[in-house]
Amino acid sequence: xxxxxxxxxxxxxxxxxxxxxxxxxxxxxxxxxxxxxxxxxxxxxxxxxxxxxxxxxxxxxxxxxxxxxxxxxxxxxxxxxxxxxxxxxxxxxxxxxxxxxxxxxxxxxxxxxxxxxxxxxxxxxxxxxxxxxxxxxxxxxxxxxxxxxxxxxxxxxxxxxxxxxxxxxxxxxxxxxxxxxxxxxxxxxxxxxxxxxxxxxxxxxxxxxxxxxxxxxxxxxxxxxxxxxx
Length: 230
Prior knowledge:
Elements: E1 3-7, H1 11-23, E2 27-31, H2 34-42, E3 49-53, E4 55-56, E5 59-60, H3 61-71, E6 75-80, H4 85-94, E7 98-101, H5 106-120, E8 133-136, E9 141-143, E10 149-151, H6 154-165, E11 171-172, H7 173-181, H8 189-207, E12 213-216, E13 220-223, E14 227-229
Parallel strand pairs: 1-2, 1-3, 3-6, 6-7, 8-14
Antiparallel strand pairs: 4-5, 8-9, 9-10, 11-13, 12-13
Helix pairs in contact: 3-4, 6-7
């Protein structure tokens, strides 16, 4: 069973997240301080992923992420109230794989964990499209792993086709604007953000799953789940 360590000093959030992850099939535990985190890692059995709060009472999450990276090869998801771009950049530079702002739902955090496990090989690779997202040019449809389908516009299909075709690699904002601008006379960064926002709402409403679309701040987006393009 995949082990997840939640490092969060807020008792209710820590308990809620640990309980939710256990119900989702993970071996999750929680600690409240940097000292407790170091004690767990000193035992030798590092978790697959650490969900790390930045503002701990006895340590800074940015420094802790860098410290973890020096000796352990585990995924790091930062969970913090600090949401501006400089903080996000600092988070990634310190070693975080994913940066989530507090206020993210439990399902969003779980989706980020599963996405990171796929990227790091922590879960088995899918075969024959099982548990994959499937993007079909016939009718511009996106089919989720739970087999729920979403009808897409031509712009949404072009956007997802480029992302899914990159197999988890980052597509820059300029590339995404260029591919979608071919279908509309006026299209810029502002329109791209509107497409992303609309897709998130549409896909979650239609499939009850969050779209595995990761923002790489200052660069672009990547589709982090297995995907087939037909």
